[in-house]
Design a protein that fits this description.
Number of domains: 2
Helix content: 10-25%
Largest sheet: 8 strands, mixed
CATH class of the largest domain: Alpha Beta
CATH topology of the largest domain: Rossmann fold
Shape: globular
Number of strands: 27
Distance between the termini: 25 Å
Structural class: alpha+beta
Oligomer: single chain
């Protein structure tokens, strides 16, 4: 019999949690493990997840209980990390005017407004701010939660007024009651820890007053990284967000951007890889890209990892009316939700534990979350450019929409061009799906500022019905072969359609709930099946 250790037990929806707890925590216990009083390490009142100490054998047995959705070790105990989706510093994919300027609007906003590729958009100077301003659709009375590295509230992008005055829109919330808010911590550029520049850049795209969309939204920051001064347990992220949302009395919509994911982080060797139904043994890190595996460097590899408890938490967030968006990831992999796809059950073993990598990682690939892939604008000859899927972006049928993510200009704490409103702060360009997801989150914040009763499904319908179809190309070419460049993902480029205005106010679109009539395909969802996560399965 193995030693007892911490396990997270996640119940299915609508199960009687109190009855389950009573059975687990009394000597009568469950029908599967009689006469055992399990020690409860963490009772999460708002969640279907509860933490118990038990042996491996007991954990396997409890999975036979029909009320139980999953049993898994805490992510940090399985070698999982919270890792930002951002991987690239790049100004090469979009070189408008050849330099970054703090007074120019990032091209992603222009592209999301235009809804199409056109060489005319690149002629002459940048469009002025008034062209891209959303007027009364700037996210008033909307709360956006940036789950990311710490945001410095003093950056002029987050000021009430576009000239950097009027105070900050960043609300300093003590999520746990156990820390003092620290706006900026230098992480030494370790992307597994706190990174102020990444969080600041993402927040600026969502809600910056020059470079962002929802320029009047309230900004909240929740830092999930393991070394963050906030002391936030990464398994409890969405408990905090749900509590925040449900305790509000002002009726403000809540929009959550997740430019991060759980990843399995491990060292060489990999003993076995099962890729597209074929078993490969003694795989070297140098072979990684040949078997759908991606590695960070010569010493370790990374795999997007599903965390069942987090998936359940996100489902409950959506049920509560919270809008959840996530970055699809930067590993150039096919992420599928289709169980008949040969890539669905790709997995590897590091000598003991199994890690599935074609299913993607939580939260961007959790059921119900809006998953965003990245687009960049590629040369096709002369001065013409076409929107193309970014070479780094994950693809596959789990992508809901695509948005610009390369060379996106936004706010950072250090580096780049000094902000003309306060020379202590900067504007620069980053690339990654981390930069595409906040484009969509910002659009959504503007939309729910008008349509305040919109659910997650309504928001997705809005995006789908207004997307521009069949314009995305393969990276660097004019290949429209969806089986190659999109890998089963819908060819939808997100387009923010400006609503009609009457007397300076937005008039709701009567067709706001229109469904996708362009394509005969339907959005894939993960099957609600019980899986054993005991050995690090993700």
């Amino acid at each position: 019999m193995s030693e007892e250790k911490e396990y997270i037990i996640t119940l299915h929806r609508k199960e009687d949690a109190e009855q389950f707890y009573e059975e687990m925590e009394t000597n009568k216990s469950t029908q599967f493990i009689p006469s055992k009083n399990f020690y409860c390490d963490k009772r999460r009142e708002i969640s279907r997840n509860t933490h118990y100490y038990m042996t491996d054998e007991e954990a396997n047995t409890i999975m036979n209980d029909g009320r139980v959705r999953a049993v898994e070790e805490p992510p940090e105990n399985k070698g999982f990390e919270v890792r930002r989706s951002f991987e690239y510093d790049s100004t090469t994919h979009f070189d408008k005017n050849g330099s970054t300027s703090n007074s120019k609007v990032q091209w992603g906003i222009l592209r999301c407004y235009s809804g199409k590729s056109s060489s005319a958009e690149y002629a002459g100077s940048w469009l002025p701010r008034s062209i891209v301003s959303t007027g009364n659709e700037e996210g008033q009375n909307v709360d956006v939660v940036i789950v990311d590295g710490n945001i410095d509230p003093s950056h002029p992008e987050f000021a009430v007024n576009s000239d950097g005055t009027g105070g900050t829109r960043v609300v300093q919330r003590d999520w746990t009651g156990s820390y003092s808010y620290t706006p900026y911590v230098d992480s030494g550029n370790d992307d597994r820890t706190n990174d102020n520049n990444h969080g600041c850049h993402v927040a600026g795209t969502v809600a910056g007053n020059r470079q962002g969309w929802a320029r009047q939204a309230n900004i909240y920051n929740l830092n999930p990284y393991s070394s963050a001064p906030t002391n936030i347990n990464s398994a409890l992220i969405f408990d905090y967000i749900r509590t925040f949302h449900n305790d509000k009395t002002n009726g403000n919509p809540t929009v959550v951007n997740n430019s991060w994911t759980y990843v399995a982080y491990d060292t060489y060797p990999i003993s076995t890889v099962v890729y597209r139904g074929t078993t490969y043994n003694n795989v070297n890190l140098s072979d990684g890209n040949d078997y759908g595996i991606n590695h960070a460097n010569s010493t370790h590899w990374l795999v997007h990892s599903r965390v069942s408890g987090v998936d359940a938490d996100i489902e409950d967030c959506i049920d509560d009316g919270i809008i959840v968006i996530g970055a699809h990831g930067n590993y150039n992999m096919k992420i599928t939700a289709n169980t008949s796809d040969p890539d669905y059950n790709n997995y590897l073993s590091d000598g003991g534990s199994l890690k599935f990598y074609a299913k993607g990682g939580s939260p961007p690939h959790s059921e119900g979350a809006i998953s965003v892939g990245s687009v960049y604008s590629a040369y096709t000859g002369g001065s013409s450019r076409n929107d193309a899927t970014a070479f780094y972006s994950n693809k596959g049928d789990r992508v809901d929409v695509w948005a610009p993510g390369s060379a996106i200009q936004s706010s950072v704490h250090s580096g780049g061009v000094a902000d003309d409103r306060n020379g202590s702060y900067y504007i620069t360009q980053y690339s990654g799906t981390s930069m595409a997801s906040p484009q969509v989150a910002g659009i959504i914040a503007c939309v729910v500022g008008v349509y305040r009763d919109f659910t997650q499904a309504d928001v997705l319908d809005y995006l789908i019905s207004r997307s521009t179809y069949d314009q995305l190309y393969d990276s660097g070419s004019e290949n429209h072969d969806d089986t190659y460049n999109l890998m089963g993902a819908p060819n939808r480029h997100v387009h923010f359609h400006r609503e009609r205005k009457v007397a300076g106010h937005v008039t709701p679109d009567p067709d706001r709930r229109i469904r996708d009539t362009h394509s005969t395909s339907t959005r894939q969802t993960y099957p609600r099946m019980k899986r054993n996560y005991l050995s690090g399965n993700s």
